[in-house]
């Protein structure tokens, strides 16, 4: 069986920040984002763009943790899954959280690049999903939320 790593890296990159036939990537959906747009929510009980970008960063961290089996590190923000928006939600804080998303993508990509192909079909610890499914799922997750973000931005602009 050929090494699947190059394809997995391509899938991750096309979902996050590289040119792809399917349209807007997660990074593309966040391009030019302002705090006002990032904080807007369509209803009181719905997520905003800022929450979605932190959620995407968190799940990149989780997939990386699944692949490395390293629970010693923690995500730098809390609570888990949908980390809280900074108290001071300004352009500086938004830029920092966008950088966090980029850092988590690069860290995941680095782990995938060195992950043994022979282990891709193994179940991840404490999971019914394989390592391959987690990696592919990380890309699908980015695209799912890119679509949500695009929709939220369109809804806000009327």
Map the helices and strands.
Blueprint: H1 5-16, H2 26-30, H3 35-39, H4 49-68, H5 91-114, H6 131-157
Helix pairs in contact: 1-5, 1-6, 4-5, 4-6
Q: What does this protein look like?
A:
Helix 4 (49-68) packs antiparallel against helix 6. The chain has 158 residues and is mostly helical. The protein has helices at residues 5-16, 26-30, 35-39, 49-68, 91-114, 131-157. It has a single domain (5-157), classed as dinb family like domain (Four Helix Bundle (Hemerythrin (Met), subunit A), Up-down Bundle), CATH 1.20.120.450. 59% of the residues lie in helices and 0% in strands. It is globular, with a radius of gyration of 16 Å.
Instruction: Describe the main β-sheet briefly.
Output: none
Average pLDDT reading? 96
Distance between the termini: 50 Å
What is the domain total for the residues? 1
CATH superfamily: dinb family like domain
Order of helices and strands: HHHHHH
Low-confidence stretches: none
User: Tell me, what is the CATH class?
Assistant: Mainly Alpha
How much is the radius of gyration in Å?
A: 16 Å
Q: Which range best describes the helical content: under 10%, 10-25%, 25-40%, 40-55%, 55-70% or over 70%?
A: 55-70%
What structural category characterises the helix and strand content? Answer: mainly alpha
- The CATH architecture can be given as Up-down Bundle
Q: Looking at CATH, which topology would you report?
A: Four Helix Bundle (Hemerythrin (Met), subunit A)
Number of strands: 0
Count of individual helical segments:
6
Strand percentage: under 5%
């Amino acid at each position: 069986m050929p090494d699947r790593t190059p394809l997995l890296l391509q899938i991750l990159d096309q979902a996050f920040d590289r040119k792809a036939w399917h349209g807007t990537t997660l990074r593309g959906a966040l391009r030019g984002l302002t705090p006002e747009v990032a904080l807007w929510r369509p209803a009181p009980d719905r997520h905003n763009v800022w929450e979605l970008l932190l959620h995407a960063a968190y799940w990149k961290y989780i997939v990386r943790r699944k692949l490395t089996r390293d629970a010693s590190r923690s995500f730098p923000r809390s609570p888990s899954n949908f980390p809280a928006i900074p108290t001071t939600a300004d352009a500086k804080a938004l830029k920092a959280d966008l950088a966090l998303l980029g850092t988590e993508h690069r860290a995941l990509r680095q782990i995938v690049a060195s992950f043994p192909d022979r282990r891709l079909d193994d179940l991840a610890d404490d999971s019914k999903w394989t390592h391959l499914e987690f990696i592919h799922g990380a890309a699908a997750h980015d695209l799912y939320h890119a679509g949500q973000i695009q929709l939220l931005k369109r809804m806000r602009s009327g």
